[in-house]
Specification:
By secondary structure, the protein is of the alpha+beta class. Helix content is 40%, strand content 19%. The chain has 33 helices and 30 strands. The chain has a four-stranded antiparallel beta sheet, with no helix packed on it. Helix 7 runs antiparallel to helix 8 and helix 23 runs antiparallel to helix 24. It is elongated and about 180 Å long.
Length: 989
């Protein structure tokens, strides 16, 4: 035990504490307050908390001789004080308060020698003592209460009196607990030979009154002692253990007030771990010396033996220290009188006749872990350890003890908790040297639990080692019993479950490659799959299940959200061959599959023979993709079509071909399969009706009808009727049908003709008798067709009459048009004299200024040529040409300019031929090339009013500022110009 620095130390607190009032006879302490009683009847109070001290004369000056203070008592709060004084042959008991300057005598206790007082620590206050118990020299117990403001006792009642063996009460302690609706009392009292226990619920007098009809529980220890004492050690305002200084030894134990107790059982329900410390253990082989006084700390007893205080560990019962006192020279012959403790301040005091000594405690629990360890109370030892090194020593002792008794698993658990005293290698070698693999595995597992998360490398290494030890254990079980795995022995199953739990817990710290290599090398395929599943290596897991033929388990793994969809495609061929139904069901509930990538697996499955009544799982899945998922992949549709084509019944194939898969989309295709592939496939499988449908869908109607005639004439007729927009083709198809029908008839000639004529009616007049006559043999008689020919002639007659009527209506219409043209030539318009041009705003009938307009135009007098439209708008010819050219596109503008150029050239040549003169008669009556050009120009610029026709509407989209114009100049008011880059020719009249 470390004794470099003592736990207990003694210091002189006050050398001349009696202050000349005699010698010290008794002492008490509480809450850093010390109260002394002297031989001359004085009470001296030292309040170290307040830093003050004062004296009280209990005799109040009425002193006749010595009046020593026999006993003095102070409450734990240091406020209340009771003193017992011997005065001649009388005994007086005084009460004083910390605030009082004068004590008060308790008259009801006149002549009564009070040896001990039990304070109500839980309820006492500075102003009131509440219930306190006084123990007297003649074996009586009194209850008393004093309020500071009353200046006297409230009451003093006799509680109990010893009748069987009247002895003086030497020590008294009280513990009070408040229950839900009552108060529980526990009182312990000692005489020189007995320890009494009183307990009950209710008022204090009621508790003691209950002992009038029941026995008092007591413990009797024979022996003689000068001063019997009872001491309660208080921790957090509650008594936790007690000690009784008796004649036989120190009787001690723990106090437990936590549970509900019965008052009829005495102290048995409160006192635990009772023991007796014999005085013989305190001597060095000589005669046992009984202590004169006792004080109790948390772990030690302070015993006043002779002129020394021996400190005894109450757990080990060994003397750990001896305290020496520095007496004054004049009092060297005088010994220490007694000890007292201050439970509130946690201090102890000793005193002789003149001096006060303070016994201080410094970390008295520092070595208690070693004490408990020596006693093999390991749990308590651990609770008292202060650092990891101390805990390691406790664990080491336990481990060595277990190892020595061959309890290797328990030893492994304790070794795993050691961090400093033994290295990891030393511990493992202990188990390896004795070939204890199971204990070694236990040590490694426990060590993993105690490692910090930061020790990643060490955790990985230990986990890998533990994995190998598990595998070794499993193999040893199999070698010991070859049928262990088959018989499912409890030990084998237990270690397998434990190993899997370990893999699950350690999956994040184990190295994947190393662990899988170990599992594979030991042949533990199931555990390899289990670990791969934990590490999300699903490829290994699925491959294993497929090898085992457990397709459903493999599919369950593939359904997990974390599994890569690529594994679905990789294992699809094996899974569908293993269990087609479960595989297809799994595909149908998987949302992110691409059916195209499953085609190889489906083709492999489809290539195998299947029973006739067996549901084709691939067809089921493809139908799900096409109809439910609206899949548009050509490969998917082609595969489904090929599977339909191989079935005996072609109804499903025909339904598939007739379904319009793209009808839900705007401008969507009617089908997504390859028609050429479908045609080749159907021809190969001899699905003729399907081929007819495909030919028709590909607009190969002649081939469709020709093939349909080989299958069913009715089907051929239906195909021929599908052509509606091409009358010639429709007629050609019906002629093919008709020829086939006529050639296939085997009845009599008249019956064949009758059927042929009936066939003509089915064509709704498309075919005539003359169309089918070439199909009959040359020796057929005309009389057989008389009825049909007459009917045909009647139809032609009706058509001729209808054509005549239409010709008459056309002739009448032509006459009306000619009359309208004649009338149009005489049409005129009236122009007001002030009518303005729609472009330049000048008057239309202006004379001069616009003479040079264009050659070839006929002017009226000296007026410029102009145009007048039915809507009323009028334009100069030059202005209209410029406006139309500017607003037209480039091609139209160039066309107009080209007409102007040609017209100008023709006008010049005409002028030269006539010596520069052009008469009005020539210009009005002759229809020359110049007139044709002028007519074309009129059509180009004057076919409609530019303000009321399409030209004005198109101008809405033209920008205000043309791309080649500047912003400012484009908004100037000026004469309209031609488009940039256009040629302008002056028209000369």
């Amino acid at each position: 035990m470390d004794t470099v620095k003592n736990v207990f130390s003694v210091d002189l607190l006050e050398r001349y504490a009696a202050k000349g009032h005699g010698v010290i006879t008794c002492m008490a302490a509480g809450n850093d307050v010390i109260v002394l009683g002297t031989s001359k009847g004085w009470v001296i109070r030292h309040d170290f908390g307040m830093g003050e001290s004062y004296d009280l004369d209990l005799s109040a000056g009425n002193r006749t001789g010595e009046q020593p203070v026999h006993r003095i008592f102070v409450d734990p709060g240091g406020s209340h004080c009771i003193a017992v004084v011997f005065s001649g042959g009388d005994v007086d008991t005084y009460y004083t308060h910390a605030k009082w300057s004068k004590p008060r005598i308790l008259n009801k206790l006149k002549g009564v020698v009070v040896n001990t007082v039990a304070w109500n620590r839980q309820q006492i206050t500075e102003a009131s003592t509440r219930e306190i118990i006084l123990g007297t020299d003649n074996g009586q117990l009194y209850e008393m209460a004093v309020d500071e403001k009353d200046k006297k006792e409230k009451y003093i009642n006799n509680l109990y009196e010893l009748s069987e063996l009247p002895e003086a009460f030497m020590g008294l302690q009280m513990e009070v607990a408040s229950l839900s609706n009552a108060t529980r009392y526990y009182v312990m009292a000692v005489t020189p030979t007995r320890l009494y226990s009183f307990t009950g619920i209710g008022a204090l007098d009621t508790v003691f009154a209950s002992y009038s009809d029941r026995a008092v529980h007591f413990m009797e220890l024979p022996g003689d002692i000068p001063n019997s004492e009872l001491y309660f050690f208080i921790k957090q305002r509650r008594a936790v253990h007690f000690a009784w200084l008796s004649g036989a030894g120190i009787y001690h134990g723990d106090l437990n007030f936590g549970a509900q107790h019965s008052s009829s059982n005495g102290d048995e329900n409160f006192v635990e771990n009772k023991a007796l410390l014999s005085y013989s253990k305190l001597s060095d082989g000589g005669e046992a010396v009984k202590p004169r006084s006792l004080a109790v700390s948390e772990f030690h007893y302070l015993l006043l033996i002779g002129d020394k205080v021996k400190v005894v560990n109450r757990i080990s019962e060994n003397i750990i220290e001896e305290l020496q006192f520095d007496h004054a020279s004049e009092s060297a012959s005088r010994a220490i009188i007694g000890l007292c403790g201050d439970a509130t301040a946690g201090l102890f005091y000793a005193y002789d006749q003149n001096s006060i000594f303070q016994v201080s405690v410094q970390d008295e629990g520092r070595d208690m872990w070693q004490v408990y360890l020596d006693l093999k109370e390991y749990a308590t030892a651990l609770a008292n350890c202060r650092d990891p090194f101390q805990r390691d020593q406790v664990y080491l002792v336990q481990a060595e003890a277990a190892f020595s008794t061959k309890d290797f698993f328990r030893a492994a658990s304790f070794y795993s908790k050691i961090n400093y005293l033994l290295s990891f290698e030393e511990i493992t070698l202990k188990f390896i040297s004795i070939n204890e693999q199971d204990a070694l595995r236990t040590f490694l597992l426990r060590k993993l639990d105690n490692l910090r998360k930061d020790d990643k490398c060490q955790i990985t290494m230990i986990s890998t080692w533990a994995t190998e030890l598990y595998l070794d254990k499993i193999n040893r079980l199999l070698l010991e019993d070859d049928t262990a795995s088959n018989n499912h022995s409890s030990e084998y199953n237990s270690i397998i479950q434990e190993f899997r739990a370990f893999l699950s817990d350690s999956k994040d710290v184990l190295d994947e490659v190393t662990t899988m290599t170990l599992l594979e090398s030991y042949g533990r395929v199931d555990e390899l799959v289990y670990f791969a599943n934990l590490k999300e290596h699903y490829e290994i897991v699925v491959h294993h299940y497929i090898q085992q033929g457990e397709a459903k388990k493999a599919l369950e793994v593939l359904q997990k959200p974390a599994v890569n969809v690529e594994l679905q495609y990789k294992f699809a061929p094996d899974l569908i061959m293993l269990d087609a139904y479960e595989t297809v069901e799994s595909w149908m509930i998987t949302s992110n599959l691409n059916p195209r990538r499953l085609i190889p697996a489906m083709m492999r499955y489809s290539s195998e023979p299947h029973a006739k009544n067996e549901t084709h799982e691939v067809i089921k899945y493809l139908e799900y993709c096409v109809h439910r998922l609206v899949n548009e992949d050509t490969g998917v549709h082609n595969l489904l079509l090929s599977l339909y084509a191989t079935q005996e019944d072609d109804s499903a194939l025909l339904r598939f071909l007739q379904c319009k898969f793209g009808k839900g989309r705007a401008n969507g295709p009617e089908f997504f399969y390859d028609p050429k592939y479908a045609l080749r496939l159907c021809l190969k499988e001899k699905r003729m009706r399907a081929c007819v449908h495909i030919y028709s869908m590909m607009s190969m109607h002649e081939e469709a009808v020709a093939l349909a005639l080989q299958v069913d004439p009715e089907l051929a007729m239906a195909e021929a009727d599908k052509v509606e927009d091409d009358e010639d083709l429709r007629k050609k198809l019906w002629l093919m049908v008709a020829k086939h029908v006529i050639e296939q008839e085997k009845g009599t000639k008249r019956e064949n003709i009758r059927k042929a004529i009936a066939f003509l009616k089915e064509t709704d007049g498309l075919l005539k008798i003359e169309d089918i006559l070439p199909f009959f043999p040359d020796f057929a008689l005309i009389d057989d067709f008389k009825e049909a020919i007459c009917s045909s002639l009647e139809d032609y007659n009706k058509q001729i009459e209808q054509l005549k009527q239409e010709m008459n209506e056309a002739t009448h219409g032509a006459d009306n048009i000619r009359n309208d043209i004649t009338a149009l030539a005489q049409r005129y318009a009236v122009i007001e004299s002030d009518e303005g041009c729609g472009v330049c705003r000048r008057k239309i009938l202006t004379v001069g200024g616009l003479e040079r307009v264009a050659r070839g135009y006929t002017s009226v007098g000296l007026m410029a040529p102009f145009y007048v439209f039915p809507c009323g708008h009028s334009f100069h010819a030059q202005c209209l040409i410029a406006h139309v050219t500017q607003s037209s596109n480039r091609a139209q503008a160039e066309y107009i300019l080209d007409l102007q150029k040609q017209l100008s050239l023709l006008s010049v040549e005409s002028t030269k031929d006539s010596n520069g003169m052009v008469t009005e008669e020539e210009s009005l009556t002759s229809m020359t090339p110049e007139d044709k050009l002028r007519s074309q120009l009129d059509d180009a610029i004057a076919s409609e009013c530019p303000f009321c026709g399409d030209l004005m509407i198109r101008e809405i989209s033209l920008p205000f500022i043309l791309p080649d114009e500047e912003n400012v100049s484009s908004w100037d008011i000026k004469t309209p110009q031609l488009l940039s880059g256009q040629k302008s020719l002056s028209l000369v009249i």
